Prior knowledge:
The complex is a heterodimer of chains A (about 120) and B (about 350).
Chain A: H1 3-20, H2 32-56, H3 60-82, H4 86-106
Helix pairs in contact in A: 1-2, 1-4, 2-3, 2-4, 3-4
Chain B: H1 6-17, E1 26-34, E2 38-45, E3 50-57, H2 65-79, E4 88-93, E5 99-104, E6 108-110, H3 111-117, H4 121-140, E7 143-144, E8 153-156, E9 161-163, E10 170-171, H5 180-193, H6 222-225, H7 234-250, H8 261-270, H9 282-293, H10 305-315, H11 317-338
Antiparallel strand pairs in B: 1-2, 2-3, 3-5, 4-5, 6-8, 7-10, 8-9
Amino acid sequence: MNKITYGLILGGILGIFDGLTSWFTPAVRPQLMGIVLGSTFKGLLAGVLIGIFARKVHSLGLGVLFGLAVGLLFAFFIAYMQRNYYVQIMVPGGLVGLIVGYATQKYGDSSTVSSSQT
Amino acid sequence: MNWLSDEAIARLRSAAAEPDLAGTRYRLIERIGSGGMGSVYLAEDATLGRRVAIKILDVSDSSGDLAARLQREAHILASLEHPGIVPVHDAGTLADGRVFYAMKFVEGERLDRFSERESTLPGRLRIFQRICDTVAFAHTRGVLHRDLKPENIMTGSFGEVLVMDWGVAKILRANWISTPAEATQDQARETSAGGGLAADSSRTALKTAHGAVLGTPGYMAPEQARGDVEHLDERADIYSLGAILQFLISASAHGTQTAPRALTAIARKAMDAEPGGRYASASELGQDIARYLDGLSVLAYPENALQKVARWAARYRLAIVLVLTYLVVRALLIFWFRR
């Protein structure tokens, strides 16, 4: 499995999970489906970006840092749209980005098959 | 009468033993080692302006057996073109009648000395994998080393791993590439015999007699130690590889590390007293080491469920810590904002 697919799948799964935890906040429970869909989309997009970065840059430190930054940025946009829940959304969002950043650097195939022979 | 001092006699002996390289393109620099049938000298190739190692027969050989064995070693090395086998540049006979062959001069150190310096187990195992690759290659060419031990492995300054000293190698099958002269002889022999080349080294009339023991105690397979030459196959080398692995995992830098069970099991399987109990090939042994290095289960060590979980957790420990941290933070946030 290549790093982009790996990031996409992991970002998607953690995004779904991240969205589902909003069930524990009674005030937003009626919008649970929308939150889960939005969170999944955010996770997928962040996963692809982090996966592309991992394929280009082979550095665990930079990968984790990039993942954290992307996760925080996307989570900030979501929180900004809601004008509320900055901590509840940004802290887990940043952690999801960090985990995906670490995983895509550590695991997944980065090589692309090419041949110079003609 | 004046008697010569011991020192003078030693100097005379050394001068007499020194090979005469006159008429060759090589200039002798110094003696760098010696083996059972010859010495290895560092020399300069005047034509190409590079340093080479020259192995020269250093004892009188009235029967010609040793000379033939040295030539055979050169032919085997020349036929085994592999990064893990030292390349032969030239072979011939010196003015004093001694047979020689010139090969690449390897700058590095023997595996036994290298392992004292290389303290990490993965580092030593990666070297071992390279040895397995080389031996597996020789086996596919029908050549059995028969004297694998740390002293016969060289590690170069730039990561090279070379399997040396093929002097007692056995040719298992007739699929190794011979010299044109030998090929003609083989063809003639095959025609007169009505087909079927004899295995082993019949082409050089150097077939090791049944009952003859060649190898090094501690690294020699039991069947080899018994002199059961007729029935030796690749699994004799696999036993020696197991003994080398045992050496590498026990030779920790400070003698304080405990050998992992899976690795000990790999070495034990490779060193099984019965050839049938060993790995089927050197590649299979190398692959089991690769599986160990990748944190996967190895063929030689069946694990119970608990050991599987422990290995999986060790392999993904940082990922597990990150996910657990995420879950804890998530739970804390939920708890905090619900108060």
